[in-house]
Amino acid sequence: MFKPEEGQEYPFYVEKLLSLPDGSYFVLNGPDDRKYLMESRFYSDEYQIIPGTEIICKVDKINCTGKVFFEPLHPVYLEGVVDVFEIVGVETRRFKKSGEEYSAYLAISNRTKHAVIRLPDQEKEWQLSIGMKVKARVKKTSKGEVHLVVVGSF
């Protein structure tokens, strides 16, 4: 019997794109032949998720009610990969649990338009600014956004 575990990767068959009143979802058929819904709004054309194809998803989280949250593997960036990114913006975000605010530096590369370097996670030694190019390591991907840690600057 299939029992998803956080951090593990599994193949899913993309059956269709379903529109519901609260948004659009991919209907995924899992290894257990059960159907799962995954929000489509986070996965731009970069992912090229198409009904009738198979994708690999990592189990990002399983909440206290047993709901499983999947994250399809990024088509370019895997955890640990280092690349050059340019800072293109900054915004203030809030942690869901604590409500505490943090700065999120938006970044792009030749391969993605959806990356972020978030403070306070990032060491204070890097003074980030718009237009700056940095060498960064992929920490994780969540909701289609590549989360980075700066490892050098130019």
In short:
This protein is mainly β. The chain has no helices and 10 strands.
Explained architecture:
The protein has a 5-stranded antiparallel β-sheet with strand order 3-2-1-4-5, with no helix packed on it. Helices cover 0% and strands 54% of the residues. Strand 2 and strand 3 form a beta hairpin. It has 154 residues and is mainly β. The chain is globular, with a radius of gyration of 17 Å. The chain has no helices and 10 strands.
Distance between the termini: 51 Å
How much is the radius of gyration in Å?
A: 17 Å
Biggest sheet strand order reads 3-2-1-4-5
Number of strands: 10
Q: Based on helices, strands and strand pairing, what is the structural class? A: mainly beta
Order of helices and strands: EEEEEEEEEE
Describe the sheet with the most strands: 5 strands, antiparallel
Q: In terms of per-residue confidence, which ranges show pLDDT below 50 for 5 or more consecutive residues?
A: none
> In what range is the share of β-strand residues?
over 45%
Total helices: the number is 0
Choose one word for the global shape.
Answer: globular
What fraction, in percent, of the residue positions are helical?
under 10%
Taking all residues together, what is the mean pLDDT? 90
